[in-house]
Every structure is written in C-alpha cells, then in structure tokens.
Amino acid sequence: MGCKMEYFWQDLRHGARVLSKSPGFSAVAILSLALGIGANTTIFTVVNAILLHPLPVKDISHLVELDTIDTKTHVGFANATKLGLSFRNFQDYQKQNEVLSGVTSIIPIPLTWSGGAEARQVNGTMVSANYFDVLGLQPAAGRFFLPGEDTKLSGNNVAVISYGFWANKLGSDPNEIGKTLTLNAMPYTVIGVAPKGFKGTFTFASAEQIWVPTSMYPQVLTGFGKEFFNDRRFLNALAVGRLKQGIGINQAEASLKTIASQLEKDFPKDNGGRSIALTPLAEAAVGVNQHDQIALAGTMMMTVVGLVLLIACANLANLLLARAARREREMGLRAALGASRPRLIRQMLTECVLLSLIGGAAGLVVAYAGRTLLWSFRPPFIQADSIDLSLDSNVLFFTLGISLLTGLLFGVAPAFKASVPDLADTLKLGGRGGSIGWGRNKLRSLLVISEIALSLVALVGAGLFIRSMRDAQQMDPGFESKNLFMLAFDLGALHYDEGHGQQFLRAAVERANATPGVKAAAIASNFPLGGGFARTVFPEGEDESTGYRGTLTQLDDITTGYFDALRIPLLRGRLFTDADRKDTASVAIINEAMAKKFWPNQEAIGKRFHFFGDTVLREVVGISRNSVVNAIGEVPPPLVYLPVTQDYAPAATLQVQTTGKPEPVIAGVRAQIQSLEPNLAITNVQTIGEIIDQGLWAPEMGAALLTVFGGLAMVLAAVGVWRAGVLGNTANARNRHPHGHGRGAARCARIGRGPGAEVNRRRPGAGNPRLACFDAPAFELALRRQRLRPSDLCGRNRHSCDRRASGVLHPRPPRHTRGSPHRPAI
Questions:
Q1: Residues 218, 214: Cα–Cα separation, whole Å
Q2: Is a pLDDT exceeding 50 seen at residue 763?
Q3: Are 33 and 407 in contact, with CB atoms under 8 Å apart?
Q4: Model pLDDT for residues 77-92, shown as the tens digit of each residue
Q5: How open is the CA angle 536-270-647, to the nearest 5 degrees?
Q6: Residue 488 phi/psi, 5° resolution?
Q7: What are the distances in angstroms from CA 532 to CA 289, 528, 682?
Q8: How many CA atoms lie within 13 A of 267 on its CB side?
C-alpha cells in the first residue's frame, strides 16, 4: 500500500511539472474544462434547488400529497389530472384512514394586512391545527397551533408567521410574539414563528408567509370560495399526510381508495366517478401537475450542457493525442527502462485527472457567477429568496464527480495510445527530438468529426427552440396586447356585502374612465393569462344523473364594456347591458371553443346550460373569439363570461386600455381607486406587456440558454480543431526534418549491419531487440534536462531501477574474443 501511494504522489508531482512546462496547452485545456464543467454545474444548481433539494421538513420521504382523480368530469384546461380535495372529503380521510399518522389541510389565500401607512396584501395559508406537527417542525420562537385550535368557527384568531416575514417585516423583534396583526380587518394574535427557511409546502412560495386556522374561513374567504367552502363537490383544499412506519405509498393509496369508494357510495352526486391518488411531497412541491413538465425541462437542459461537456472532452482528447506525439520518445524511454503498460497508463491518467480537477475548480467559479446571472433573469412572480441556489454538498459532489469522469473520458484514448510506443522507431530518433507519425491518426479524425457533429446538434436544437419562441411571440393572444394595464383588489377582505361591492365596482370603472389617458376600462374576475375559477358545465337536458360527462369550465365575471376595453371581438349575438340584472333572465357569453365543445355543428346562440348542482339555466346571448386564458400556445379552452351584476365576485381586477403607453397612466388610476377606499390593498399592478413577457419567459429563457450553450459548443469545437491541427502539423513537420527519422534509421542500419555489429550485439540491452538503436548519451542528457532519475520513468524500486539504468547509460567495455578484427594491437 505504501508503494502504491508513493507511486501516486510521484505521478502527481510529475503531472504537475508536465502541465507547468506547457502553459499554453494547460491554459486552453483548463479554460475548456471550466466552461464545460461550469455550464453543467450552473444548470445542476438550478435543477438541484428545484427538483432535488427537499423541503425543510422532517423525513420528507414519508410525506405524500392527497389528490382527487375525477374520471367522470372532463377537465377542459391546463392538462390537470390531480385536483386537490374538498374540505369535507379531507375531514373524512383524516378520520377514517389507518395508513397515515396524520393528515393536514392546506388552503392558500391572499390576506390584506392593514394598520400601517398603506394596506398590503400578504401571502396566507389556512391550515389544520396539526399542520406543523405533520411536517415535523419546531418553532423558532413562540409556539404552533394547539390541538383543537381549528374548531371554533371564526373564533381561533391566532396566526403563525414565517421566519422571513418576522425578519423582513417585523425586524426579528421577539416582542412581536403575543402582539396582533390586522388581517382582513380582523386582529390576529401572533403566537409563533416558523423555523428559518420554511415557507410552506410549495417550492416557489414566497419566504413571507402567514398561517391561520381553517376555522377562520368565514373571515378570510370571500365570494365563491366562502359560499361553497363546505360543498363536497368544491375542490378547494390540498392535503398532506405522513405515512405510518412500514407503510409504502402504494399500500397507503390502495387503502385510501377503499375510503374513496365508500364516499362515492355515500355521496354519489358529489363524489360520483371520483377516487384518490397519492404523490410524494418531494415531487408535488413544484406543482403536482407540473412536476413532469419541469423535470423534462431540467433533463433537456442537462442534456444540452452534457453535449457541451462531451465536446470539451473530445476537444481535450484530441489535444492530448496530438500532444502525446511529442511525448512518444518519453514513453519509449520509460518502457525501455521497464515501465509496464499499466504503469504508463496510470501516469497518463493521473495527469488527465489532475487537469480535470483544476478545470473543475475553475468551473465552480464559472458556476458561481453563472447561477447569479441566470437567477437575475427569473420571472417577476418568483421572488429572489424563493429558491436557495447555494452551492451545497450536492452541487460540490456533482462537480467533483463530473470532473473525475471528464478526466477519465478525455484521458483514456491518449493514455492507451501512448502506453504502447513503437520503441524501435522511437529510439531511432535518438536525442534529436521529433515524433512518430501521429500527424495522421484515425482516432483524432474521429474526435474532430464528433466535436463538429455534437456542436451542430446543440446549434440545431437552439435553432428549433428559437423558431418556436418566435412563433409564440408572433401569436395573437386574442386581446389588446400593447396599451393595456390592470390592477387587482379584494373587497371581501374588507367584508363588503354584495350591494356595497357592486356600487364600488361601478364607481371604480367611472373613476378610471374619467382619468386622462384612459380609453376604456372594465372589471373582470380574471387576469389575462391568469386562469380562474372553474365549474362543471352541463348543457340543457343533461346532468350528473343522466350519465353525461360534464366539462370543468373556467368562468370570468365581467362588467359591461369589457370586450371593448380588451378589444376581444364578438363574433355573433350581443354584449351584456345594464339591463342584465339579478331579477332578469340569466345570460352568458361563451367563446368559440365552448360553442364547439357543447354544440358542435349547431348554432349556440339561444342554447342554455347549467352548472353542477345549480338548477338555474343560463342562456347564451353571444359568442366571442377565442383568446388566451392560461398560457400562450395553449389549445383554446372553453370559457364562460358572466355579467358581474348577476354573478358578483368581490375579488376583482380593473383592466384599463389607454390611448398611448400605459405606464404614465397607472399612477392616476391607482390614486382614483385608492380614494374610494383608503384601506383597500391594491395589488398586481402590471402592464399587458409584462404579463405576456411572463407568459413567454420559459420559452425565451430556454431559447437563450440553448443559444448560449450551442455557441459555446461551437467555440469549443473550433478551438479543438484549430489546436489539434496546429499540433498535428507540428508533428508532421518534425517527422519530415532532415536530421530526424531518416538519419536515425540510417544509423540504426549501420549499427545492425556495419563492421561493429558483433560488438553492438554484445552491448548492454542487446538481449532486448527494442534497444538495438538506443542512444544512451542523448537519453542521459534528456534526463538531466528534465531533472529526472531513471526511477521516475520506470516506477520500480528506486535502487534496482537506478542500477539497471546505470548499466544502460555507462556500459562496461566488452570482452573481445581471440581473432576479433577489433582486438587492440600490442
């Protein structure tokens, strides 16, 4: 073991000397590796933070998310298959299950925090009292909810705040524990602070969070969410459970499906066709329906940067093969002194791994800068502190692993090639320098071809992505895409009743229209590209009892003037008017997709439909052109527009079309709305350009990254081809040198056939045909120039190797036999 370590350190020192004596080669190699490894580490840092870095909870592998699977209802948008739970069904799973040690409900909500200079909206979550216990957390300060502290309706006005909220908004003041926060116009006592780094069970959540008990839903929910909170059909909650010891996820799911079947029998109207599915929380944390898409994007980016690293490996392998031609004589001398092939391979691989480790260290520097630059281009809806992009142990081990693997990949071919030198040719060169015929090498040619091919693959991928992005940018969203802005507010947070709410909405539109620079304004419940609430729709004459499969369809409550403000064309029928009120016939405007979905090849104007569990029939009075609802590039989903005068929604957005650029008009409109209610939190003030940019962020970022990495791949390939060509031409030039190979061959021939052949056959090394043309003086001079001992070349026992080398370098005079023509005269 001691000898092996001695050889290892010997190889390491020699490798460092070799690299230091070739600064140009070393610089090119380290730069190539730094770019290749740095690109991989940068992307892996993001993938690790989003997909591999677990939430800061206890034993996340034992935590699962519970979701409804509905086989009876068609989901008309967003490819959603796992749909959360209704609060009532959650309570049944919590009480009846035997495979989960605890189950908690989670309902994200916006909260209006007032009491300061200006009301602000903060991120809130309604949870069961056992929420923190199920997740296995301990408070950083104060306490968590007590058992039963979620049972007193509207009476458990206590709150737990996140560490980020405590630090950023309350200055980490321990005296804030026990004080009150005014949330949705009601005081809540702060009883505790969550541990540092915990922000909930969603990876992209803000670090500033407030948790309140579910028993407070009448105070914190508004509109549709409050009205249908206890409806078994209303899928308003998420649920997370902890598996009991020894229970696997498949076993737990099978057991819970039994409960789901019983709930379907007990409540056939609400739970018909519904079952349950479990997903590991580590996957569901990025969105239970988005995990596969995000994982695919991560895999694609890792594949692209992997191609860049492969090009860097091929580049370096080519450089090393060309460089090995200059070291052929050195390898020959090592073999002549008895170094075995494995010994030579080990020496070469040690040099390559040392080079790759230095490149890996430089790659970490590139990754540190790269992840900061990459994160600066995140979309606005992801806050700077939402994701921890630190270079943790996972990232460091990944970098170490790919560095070692890279060293082996680009070092194997040169090592094996150099470990079998043609000593007869090598030693013929004597001390005159030169290299064997490595200038034309099939392996090097193959590596050059591989570099070019891989770089073209990366560039073609980038080109395809750029074309897709360009098509998305040129796509018509179906509404005004330039001179438009919007802002949001929630009247329910201030407990406005419907009468006061309707009055406020009318006044808001009037004030906005009177603001200079405004062309048209309207109210809607949904943002463009923001989705919205969805209800199951049945055409007239069909319902859940007839076996018809209803379609989950998104709704948008709007005021008159909405289609003019957003410039959405009405294809047929009429718009809403002030005559459409609560006491008149219920009406609706639908988009083209809904008309084709429910009444194909028919005229939809005059048709009627109803929602699940609702007997009111709504007549279709108009059909609008399709517009983007959830995401640019989507298949147009069915959409229903309802007049806000018949379907009041307290959470609303004011959407304003301007005569010119919207930015100068925003402040005036906001001031007008704030003057109507100073305690109203106005949020999400955005122009339509900002919203569309957010919608295009993913394809634009993907195209940009692929372009950068494709260009990097081409640069690495070009550098590799140029550098290898220079070294190859140098090797060929040396082979053609008039005092090189030819002179050595002639001298060797004279030694083998000349008058002194008998003497030369008796000189040391004559028993080894490969040493027949050994130039000992040149070899000794080379050792002295390199400051090497013979044992540094052969790797054997130092003294025996030195004695053997001494015999080769300084042979004793031969004993001449009687009659020899070269016997000295007396």
A1: 9
A2: no
A3: no
A4: 667 789 999 999 999 9
A5: 40
A6: -125, 155
A7: 17, 10, 19
A8: 15
Count CB atoms within 10 A of the CB of residue 323: 23
The predicted model gives 208-237 an average pLDDT of: 93
Beta-sheet pairing, 570-573 with 618-624:
antiparallel
pLDDT computed for residue 824 by the predictor: 37
Instruction: Give first-to-last CA distance, the chain, whole Å.
Output: 58
| CA Rg value for the chain | 38
pLDDT in tens, 251-282: 999 999 999 999 999 999 899 999 999 999 99
Q: What is the DSSP letter of 554?
A: E
Measured distance CA(794)–CA(789) in Å, rounded? 9
Calpha distance 698→629 (Å, rounded)? 17
Cβ neighbours, 10 Å, residue 489: 27
- Is residue 786 scored above 90 in pLDDT? no
Query: DSSP string of 769-797?
Result: GGGTT--HHHHHHHHHHHT--HHHHH-S-
Distance CA 190, CA 440 (A): 77
pLDDT at 664 over 70: yes
Residue 578 to residues 506, 555, 561, 567, 569: CA-CA distances in angstroms? Answer: 11, 20, 10, 20, 20
**Residues 728, 436 contacting (CB under 8 angstroms):** no
DSSP-assigned letter for residue 50: I
Q: How many CB atoms lie within 10 A of CB 257?
A: 15
- The per-residue b/e assignment along 90-118, b for 16 or more CB within 10 angstroms, e otherwise, is bbbbbeebebbebbbbbbbbbbbbbeeee
Return the structure tokens found at 2. 């001691």
d(CA 210, CA 500): 28
Residues 465, 641: Cα–Cα separation, whole Å: 35
818's CB contacts (< 8 A; 6+ apart) are none
Contact 388, 207 (CB under 8 A): no
Q: Which residue blocks in 171-279 are alpha helix, DSSP H?
A: 217-220, 223-227, 249-266, 268-271
Cα 710 to Cα 439: distance, rounded to the nearest angstrom: 29
For the four alpha carbons of 755, 758, 763 and 768, in that order, the dihedral sign comes to: positive
Q: In the Cβ-directed half-sphere of 472, how many Cα atoms lie within 13 Å?
A: 23
What is the pLDDT at residue 790?
A: 55
115-130 pLDDT tens trace: 777 889 999 999 999 9
- Structure pTM? 0.78
- Greatest mean pLDDT among 448-452, 726-730, 806-810 lies in 448-452
Q: Tell me the Ramachandran region of residue 655: left when phi exceeds 0, alpha when psi lies from -120 to 50, beta otherwise.
A: beta
Tokens of 148: 């039963």
Question: For position 342, what pLDDT does the model report?
Answer: 74
The region of weakest confidence among 205-209, 580-584, 696-700 is 696-700
Cα–Cα distance, 359 to 351 (Å, whole number) = 12
* Secondary structure, 3-state, 121-147: EEEEEEECCCHHHHHCCCCCEECCCCC
Residue 546 has what DSSP assignment? G
